[in-house]
Write a structure and sequence with these properties.
Length: 219
């Protein structure tokens, strides 16, 4: 039979706010090493696979190929990561960089490369996965542009935290517009980043998740 509702408990994914903290991009050694310490960096970090909306991103990247000083940086791997690299080669995109997964001690640096992070989720995967990359992004105090349906959990968290912008699946023009607006409005960008870290410290830090699990197990 069905499990009684009072037996079901939810603990959000988490990140470690001690390990991952906001660092000014100009002070990140990896940014200088890659030559992206002075550019506007739109970062996608982690797996790019079957649950993620590649076409919407491809459309926006193409629309922004003449945006001087904007860089898309993809850090990670996955089936659609390889597909995107092939697309970049065919379209001769000069504003897109690809990096492999970074060693764990460098995760804070790689997340702090970003002025803004991209998160995406296809509608078919709502209720199956919650992109856990969101919590590391919030830990380093960066805003997210989320490509997802408005009722997706990741979209709800970003909206309620005022920690970014939500764009509908398929809306490449809307994605490009959102990124350009954030680039033009550094005050909003900074406010959303600060909101992200504040919400992270209140709800999604590792000690909070551990305390929730302890209460569930001992309650």
């Amino acid at each position: 039979g069905a499990c009684p509702a009072h037996r079901v408990h939810v603990v959000h994914p988490w990140a470690s706010g001690g390990d991952l903290q906001p660092i000014d991009k100009a002070s990140v050694p990896l940014a200088a090493a890659l030559g992206v310490d002075q550019t506007f960096n739109i970062v996608y970090s982690g797996n790019l696979g079957m649950a993620h909306d590649l076409p919407t991103m491809v459309g926006a990247i193409d629309l922004m190929k003449s945006d001087d000083g904007a860089r898309f940086i993809f850090i990670g791997g996955g089936s659609r990561f390889d597909q995107l690299q092939q697309e970049a080669a065919v379209r001769r995109w000069k504003h897109v960089r690809f990096l492999p997964y970074q060693e764990r001690p460098l995760l804070g640096q790689s997340l702090n490369l970003a002025d803004v992070h991209l998160i995406s989720q296809l509608p078919e995967f709502i209720g199956i996965v919650v992109p856990s990359k969101l919590f590391g992004i919030m830990a380093v105090g960066r805003p997210s542009v989320v490509i997802a349906q408005p009722h997706a959990e990741v979209a709800r968290i970003v909206r309620e935290s005022a920690a970014g912008v939500v764009v509908a699946n398929g809306d490449s023009a809307g994605l490009a517009t959102a990124l350009r607006q954030l680039r033009a409005d550094r005050a909003t960008l900074a406010t959303m980043g600060a909101n992200a870290r504040r919400a992270f410290e209140a709800q999604f830090d590792l000690p909070i998740a551990c305390a929730q699990m302890e209460r569930i197990l001992t309650g």
